[in-house]
Amino acid sequence: MRITSKKISTYNGEIVAGSLLIPESREIATLLLGGASEQEWHQAITINNILQKRSPASANRQTKLIKNRLNLMTPEHWALVKDGNAELATQALLAAAIKHSRLLGDFMGHVCHQHWLTFQRTLSDKDWREFLETCSQVDPAVGEWTATTTSKLRQVVFRILAEAGYLDSTRTLNLQPTSVVPELRKYLANHSEDYILQCMECAK
């Protein structure tokens, strides 16, 4: 899979706000499925602190990120997040994160995929730097990101890959073969989410 043009590939740093946030996302999916009112959202997130964050600001920041991801999907997907087992919920959240962040998707579909094709089983900081250089050719705004931002983005992307089982850990960065859970594969196919599925099948 190759990175294409800016028309369909726009990069942003929103993913820096958090990794997959699995327990928190289950809570948000529950509220979305229940059609919570604005008052109910405030009560759950700010007053009851269901995400168990140290401050309302942190809770609201992560709520916004998770809602931005899940709102790109459908109630059927939210149910996979809410009720699925650990593997299904994790992969469903990875799918939403890929749809929300082309940066994550293209890193999986291009860099990780190329590593599998060339029998390289370990990622490196150099891979991340070279990837961002390629991204900056597609979207010049990437070249304006600070070193702090690019470092944080790297941490979050690699953490997501580790959480989803694509890396053995964020320390060793060894790639691991993965397979998409049949229930999620069916959902993605039925909703024509070909790009997401390609990214998630980067080991092929």
What does this structure look like?
The protein has 204 residues and is an all-alpha fold. The chain has a single domain (19-200), classed as fold of a uncharacterized protein from magnetospirillum magneticum (Orthogonal Bundle), CATH 1.10.3540. The protein has 10 helices and no strands. The chain has helices spanning 22-33, 38-47, 56-70, 75-83, 86-100, 102-117, 125-138, 147-163, 182-190, 194-200. Helix 4 packs across helix 5 and helix 5 (86-100) crosses helix 10 (194-200). The longest helix is centred in the C-terminal third of the chain and has 17 residues, at 147-163. It starts with 21 loop residues before the first helix and ends with a helix. Residues 1-9 have low confidence and may be disordered.
Average residue-wise pLDDT: 94
Number of helices: 10
Q: For the CA atoms, what is the radius of gyration?
A: 17 Å
Give a short account of the largest sheet: none
Number of domains: 1
Q: Report the order of strands and helices.
A: HHHHHHHHHH
Q: Which of globular, elongated, flat, extended, rod-shaped describes the shape?
A: globular
**CATH architecture classification name:** Orthogonal Bundle
Structural class: mainly alpha
E-strand count: 0
Distance between the termini: 11 Å
CATH fold type:
fold of a uncharacterized protein from magnetospirillum magneticum
Strand content: under 5%
Range of helix content: 55-70%
Spans of 5+ residues with little confidence (pLDDT < 50)? Answer: 1-9
CATH superfamily: uncharacterized protein from magnetospirillum magneticum domain
Assembly state (oligomeric): single chain
CATH top level assignment? Mainly Alpha
